[in-house]
Amino acid sequence: MENHMHTVLGANGAIGKTVIKELEIRQLKIRKVSTKPTWFQANLLSKEDAEKAIDGSSYVYLCIGLPYNATVWETQWLQIMQNVIDACEKAQAKLIFLDNIYMYASPLPIPFDESTSQSPVSRKGKARKQTTDLMIKAIRDNKIKGLIGRSADFYGEGAVNSPFYTSFLERMLQGKRPQTLVSAEIEHTYANVLDNGRALVELALRDDCYGEVWHLPVGEPITTNGMLVLFNKKLGSNFKISVMPTLLKKILSLFIPILKETKEMEYQFEQKYVLSDYKFRNRFPNFKVSSYQDGVNRMVEWFKDIENENTSS
Predict the structure, then answer these.
(1) Per DSSP, what are the bridge partners of residue 149?
(2) 297 occurs within a structural domain
(3) Which of 309, 298, 81, 63 is nearest to 196 (CA)?
(4) What is the CA radius of gyration of the chain?
């Protein structure tokens, strides 16, 4: 095992866990950091905590997730990124940031790539753009070495915030009809959490990948109804999707915060939304992207196991 420390910030999240899994496969030295006391505990809003978590690291994977709330993102992402940048600069560690794709302009070209213009139309998109701009500036100013891996909406084992879990697989496992807030007929590209973890480590270990933004690999464009076919196949079921009416969404959003928060992101499902991962695939031609069916199968098994654990406890 090499002596370089690979520190995973957000080790308890879906992507953090898959990064750790890939690092373990490669027998690399790992420090697992989370707000939970399970491993190395740190609150990245604290400059001191960030420095302690990152001290002695060679590679730092920033894979944390914040509550899905625009105000939280606006007030916390910049502070976290600045603390992590400063700590990486002090430790002379390379920073690998798991980003999303909210900062791109709308409507988007089909497909859209890393060069697509950034004029975010949402508060959360603006917060993410400011955060990545801060990191890019630090890289250009030679404060740190870093790279950004941007993920499409992801699904798979442990993906509790996936659009295919809440009100979807969660309901199917209860014998209920899955629900969606948006059209089930618009094609979209999705990333598998395992592919994200593998891809981030691939990028981290290649010196020539630093200083750049990379779209992480995705499957072919597929509709929500297309994904439903795969879930039904795994579950041996024949569910149909229920699309929530606009008026009902407006009413429920007054009482259910997550519905209010998702409203500004619905533009992603109003037209074909296809991410290009050509740059990554061209750099890593032997990288095997998981099939949607394999990802769905793993996702179902993972959440079934969790439900069984909760039932037996």
Answers:
(1) 98, 214
(2) no
(3) 63
(4) 19
